[in-house]
Amino acid sequence: MLLELALQTCGLSLSYKFLTAIMRLVILEDYDQASEWAAKYICNRIIQFKPSQGRYFTLGSTPLGCYKKLIEYHKNGDLSFKYVKTFNMDEYVGLPRNHPESYHSYMWNNFFKHIDIDPNNAHILDGNAPDLQAECDAFEKKIEEAGGIDLFVGGIGPDGHIAFNEPGSSLSSRTRLKTLAMDTILANAKYFDGDLSKVPTMALTVGVGTVMDAREVRTHLVLVACVFSRLVGIDTGIESKEIFVLQVMILITGAHKAFALYKAIEEGVNHMWTVSAFQQHPRTIFVCDEDATLELRVKTVKYFKGEH
Amino acid sequence: MPSNKSVSDAPIVQFTNCRILRDHQLQRARARQRRLLAVSQLEEQLYSGRHRSARGRRCPWDPLCPGSMSLGQGRLLLVLQMIRELGVCNCPPREDLWVREGKILNPEKLFFDEKGSADVQLDCKDSIIAPGFIDVQINGGFGVDFSLATDDFKSGIDLVGQKILSHGVTSFCPTLVTSPSSVYHQISVRNGGAHGAGILGAHLEGPFISKEKKGAHPEHCLRTFEAGAFQDLLATYGCLDCVQIVTLAPEMRRSSEVIRELTKRGICVSLGHSVANLSQAEEAVQHGATFITHLFNAMLPFHHRDPGIVGLLTSDRIPAGRRVFYGMISDGIHTNPAALRIAHRAHPKGLVLVTDAMAGMGLAPGRHTLGQQVVEIDGLNTYIAGTKTLSGSVATMDTCVRHFQEATGCSVETALEAASLHPAQLLGIEHKKGTLNYDSDADFLMLNDSLYVQATYIAGEEVWRQDVSGM
Predict the structure, then answer these.
(1) Domain annotation covers residue A298
(2) Where do the structural domains in chain B lie, given as residue ranges?
(3) pLDDT tens digits, residue range B291-304?
(4) Chain A residues in contact with B57 (beta carbon < 8 A)
(5) Could you confirm whether B232 is annotated as catalytic?
(6) Nearest-CA distance B367 → chain A (Å)
């Protein structure tokens, strides 16, 4: 515990020496534990914020396994979403809203249905709006009116994209319409019965610039040790400490994301790997699993694990 | 929480903590969720119980690694993972039932389109929620006989409609057996509510049936339509506006014309009280018949060279896209459980549970009237007075559902659908009755695990509830 505390303090001061923002690598055992870690983090952040009438906690969020845990906390009475606003970061264009693969359906079935969030506070881009750019601009405005995003949680693609900011996106971009890259379409095909022609080719997405604005950007790297059950991570006691000032959380799990993680952490800021932009953000947490670190240098992994 | 009602101001009720029968499946039961939770907790204990090796590694599958858990424990972990995976595979997760203005509401549309939320939340305490039962063959009950000519017909039908709510029946077809013409055309269609179950229309069983298989029907009232075919039928019944089902014997001359005419008017034609062979029955189906009245009873028995009407269950001459339904009285008396199982296994999607209840249902044992005859009740058995001919039943619909489930060993979903979805499909009303799909009528029941009805709802309003003291 003490060691981890020291690590974080080091990490904090280090952040001002290195170009990279503080990147805590939280290594957890498996995907479930990673989800739980992320959920506990979100839960604690919301509770610490003490949201109430007129004081909303804004969450920018994408599909995560931690939804189940958040719902559990809600059902246990530990967490209420009454004063939480959520902004989803993307949505397909041209997909009917009630299609099982649309993000509206996803969020409803996996999250909104089970919690007490006010429907007026759940914002998702409308991929079927008559004027898509106006829809994007309106979304940006809504974020601004909500006072910006308190905590942004997301995952990355194998090509290092954050939201649908595909390689080649401007790092100062705002919410807009994007054509999906082939990598993304291939990755998504499994949700559309493997039929490439059914996968939407365009999507509305928040821009890199929009997320960089987030007051707290937590990049949540969830390292999952698949084969060996190693629990080298932060146990629950840590979450309650005020050390977490990071505001972006990104989950990166699986060997297929390893190269993207390498590009994000060990290489420079690069618009071809848009998640690397978060090196510039003051507060970032990557949570990842063992497999995702496969392309990192042993030195880097050891450093973040505290094993010198 | 604000309720933005852009579509309607009516209150929205959300039934929580329940297991809904939807898409032929019941949702996950709480006991199962508890088991899953227990499995994960056990796994957690196993993981944390392992003591760390020198390098902080835990390796349940490597017995050589120092400080690892034993092989037995490792295997237990694998088994637990398998249990957990099996446990989460097929059962859909829980949903709540949302109701507004007497219809089942789609909560996702409410959330995204109207930004609305529930006005009232009712905890169903883990009950099963199933569509209300539909009884398409019920001759009376509680002393009331629908086929008896009386001035007080309306109050009789109201009484029965009100009493059967406690059996889980939310819609029914009052059945008139072979009777003099004056008895017909007294039934009118009406919606259900607190006053009683909804009336879908009359089921006219006879008088165009076979003499040899009249059962409890009085012989002097039997008729044929040889002379004028459909006109004869019309003359007997009078108005056909409120008729939903007609049972006739297909071997009678000119039955094909009659069946075609009736089907054209949207009336369901049922084969029963007949000595037809399989070809005659198949021909009737080709002309439009879709139902068999109380299978096995009042028809020729199954024979391996001429299966008769029973053969329709597996006939290959049914027109494409059509399904033949068959009524079964599963009170354990009208049909031997083995015969019930044979029929169910041969054609499970066509089975419609009916009560064929008569005036004695709900009454004490003794003598009562059925149509133009006197019958005797002895427990669940009813006979024509002085004989051993069965005449109708006194079983209630929920008893039939329970007996059906026990006798066939089928799933709870199948048993419930046989009394709700299948009759709705038979009558062509499954878009609004017989299911809990969005936008269908909110006629549903709350049942416990043993399939005893705890509460009945029609159009979203509670119309009956089981007395806590135990009725």
Answers:
(1) no
(2) 13-131, 133-441
(3) 999 999 899 999 99
(4) 228, 230
(5) no
(6) 56
pLDDT of B5 above 60:
no
Chain A contact set for B47 (CB, 8 A): 229, 231
Structural domain count, chain A:
1
Catalytic residue among B145, B331, B356, B398: B356
Q: Could you tell me if residue A77 is inside a domain?
A: yes
- Give percent of chain A with pLDDT exceeding 70: 76
Nearest to A65 by CA among A256, A201, A254, A293: A254
Query: Does residue A291 sit within a domain?
Result: no
Q: What is the ipTM of this complex?
A: 0.73
Comparing A289 with B451, which gets the higher pLDDT?
Answer: B451
Whether domain B133-441 has CATH 3.40.980.10: the reply is no
Q: Are A146 and A56 in contact (CB under 8 A)?
A: yes
pTM for the full predicted model: 0.77
Does residue A191 fall inside a structural domain?
yes
Lowest mean pLDDT among A47-51, B306-310, B418-422: A47-51
Range of the domain at A212: 36-228+238-280
Find the CATH number of the domain harbouring A158.
Answer: 3.40.50.1360
Find the Cα–Cα–Cα–Cα dihedral B217, B223, B226, B232, rounded to 10°: -120
Q: Do the chains contact at A228 and B58, CB–CB below 8 Å?
A: yes
